[in-house]
Design brief:
This protein is α+β, with helices and mostly antiparallel strands. It has a domain at 7-76 and 109-118. 33% of the residues lie in helices and 32% in strands. It is built from four helices and six strands, in the order αβββββααβα. A six-stranded antiparallel β-sheet has the order 1-2-3-4-5-6. Strand 3 (40-49) and strand 4 (57-64) form a beta hairpin. The radius of gyration is 16 Å and the shape is globular. The termini are far apart.
């Protein structure tokens, strides 16, 4: 049986299993995932931003240790994430969320952005100063 701090997290883990992605190993700042091809992907958490009822979102900045790619991943209410995605994609996102809501389903949106090493370093310096 899965345990998590929210039903959303359980749903995301189950979705990962459907995609044949599995948690292989987890430490305080590192984790390893077994991807759909059976390969291990190693990640380091650079920063995490917990959910708050005020922000209605949570996020994490991670680095793929195999490729060096740095990714910011966010999940939250569609109203919040809508303003974070490309304008051309917003209408289809909102249409899908409205359709699901009319069926009585709760919606959760997640998105990601690949950032450069320089962008991540500049951001982390500002974060640590704050």
């Amino acid at each position: 049986m899965l345990q998590a701090s929210s039903p959303d997290e359980i749903a995301l883990v189950k979705f990962g299993y459907l995609l044949n992605m599995k948690l292989h190993e987890r430490g305080r700042v590192n984790c390893a995932l077994k991807n759909f091809s059976g390969n291990i992907e190693n990640y380091e958490t650079l920063a995490s931003f917990p959910f708050t009822s005020e922000s209605k979102k949570m996020g994490i900045l991670i680095k793929n240790l195999n490729t060096g790619t740095i990714i910011y991943i966010v999940k939250g209410a569609e109203i919040v994430v809508e303003n974070m995605i490309k304008p051309a994609v917003r209408p289809s996102l909102m249409e899908i969320c409205e359709t699901l809501a009319m069926d009585g389903l709760r919606t959760l949106v997640f998105a990601q952005k690949v950032v450069t090493q320089v962008q991540a370093e500049e951001f982390l310096q500002k974060l640590w100063k704050a």
